[in-house]
Write the structure tokens for this entry.
Amino acid sequence: MLGEREAVAADVRPYTVHGVPHVELVLRYPDGEAETVRLGAESVPPDLRAGQRVMVRSVMRTVVEVLAPPT
């Protein structure tokens, strides 16, 4: 039920809801799948830019965190 996958952050759009920062991301996976997710800004690297590789953590196929990939 827990998972991690590599992806590319194809689009990164910060926004706020009642003053609380969030980020909308379009993630593209190596198998060609793409998904749009919305997360609190604390769940995304602060310097994330479109085109960067990321590690996506999910629970029951729901993205809960996006991390910089291990180097």
